[in-house]
Specification:
Distance between the termini: 63 Å
Order of helices and strands: EHEEHEHHHHHHEHHHHHHHHEEEEHHHEE
Bound molecules: protoporphyrin IX containing FE
Strand order of the largest sheet: 1-2-3-9-6-4
Number of helices: 19
CATH topology: Cytochrome p450
Largest sheet: 6 strands, mixed
CATH class: Mainly Alpha
Length: about 400
Amino acid sequence: MPQPFVLDPAGADPDAEHRTLRAKGPATRVDVLGVTAWSVTDPDLLKRLLTSSDVSKDARRHWPQFNDAIQTWPLALWVAVENMFTAYGQDHRRLRRMVAPAFSARRVDALKDRVENIVAELLDDLEKTEPGEQADLREHFAYPLPIQVIGHLMGLPAGRREGFRAVVDGVFATTLTPEQAAANTVALYAVLDDLIATRRAEPGDDMTSLLIAARDEDGDGSALSENELRDTLLLMISAGYETTVNLIDQGITALLTHPEQLHNVRSGRATWGDVVEETLRLEPAVKHLPMRFAVRDIPLPDGQVIAEGEAILASYAAANRHPDWHGDSAESFDVTRTAPGPEHLAFGYGAHFCLGAPLARLEGAIAIRAFFDRFPHAELAVPSDQLPRVASLITNGHQHLPVRLKPAV
Ligand code: HEM
């Protein structure tokens, strides 16, 4: 068997890497920081696997390497957490049901005014930038919005929201040593334990307090164990903003580098919702999603077999640009693109489909639209190919997004 293709931990040139993966066939073996997995880039095969009961996210039950991996693999946290993200079957339904109602389209719609107000305040601050001066939109726009929204929903005390940022960034970084990753996990659990203690002492009208109440009323842990409580908070807080930051960052970058597409929106040929969907397709916030496992042998269309117990990596970014799905223009940004059916897999597919998709879409559309309304002459302060990427094979954003908001006078 050929050696697995080694994925670049720093994700320095993802487009070229994903082209190579697609050229290797619907699924190919890759090395993910020392762990071998099948990277699946064919959209049809990926959808089939994501809806199959032969595929599980529960590493404890379905990955023979689990005990070794959690000692040494820098991404151990991604498979070790005990929440809906890693749960299978009945456990998954139980854990997802506890939080799902709070993220329904109706509940999210009710957040619209709050999101608009936060966006307006952030833009008011950016307005103070002198003509010709640069502002880092990642730092001063893309980050603070999702942090404030998820902070409100989860009941994170205002003064402690920034404290979550470094440790959540650490979850998505894939260039840490196993020791650095383990230290980040310790720091992460310290802030989560602190949050639980605070909300236990002073419950509020928020998701953390609701989950604590569900856990404490139940008593025997059958509804939610203490680990599940902690790891559900970890999931909601980390999934709740790191990804949305990337959506806002990538959406603004794409429109600044494709003025003709901005023109399509301004002239009514496309909507701000189309901008969000096309950004999610071309530059999905999550490039590869670790990890799934074959519950039994799975034959592939090309005759290969994913053997029972082998790991599977959902390579969403590569699948989204598959020419079989989006034709010759699959690698270009086109907000007027009309595809049959769902246009991308940025939120996953099947039972684990992103719970926060309505919220992410709401925040993305409001933020990107308001930004271009307020700063119609904004331009990137460096060429787009010089924007430094976040060093990660998972998350897909820039370290900074320097933009000149107003022309020099
Ligand atoms: C642009 C923004 C976002 C993107 C691209 C995104 C993408 C994803 C992806 C790819 C998955 C994993 C699917 C899989 O298992 O393969 C996921 C799961 C999840 N996301 Fe999001 N997400 C975003 C925003 C959010 C927000 C704002 C929240 C919450 C407030 C959220 C909560 C979750 C949760 C709870 C799961 C786990 C669902 C499950 O395992 O059943 N996400 N998301």
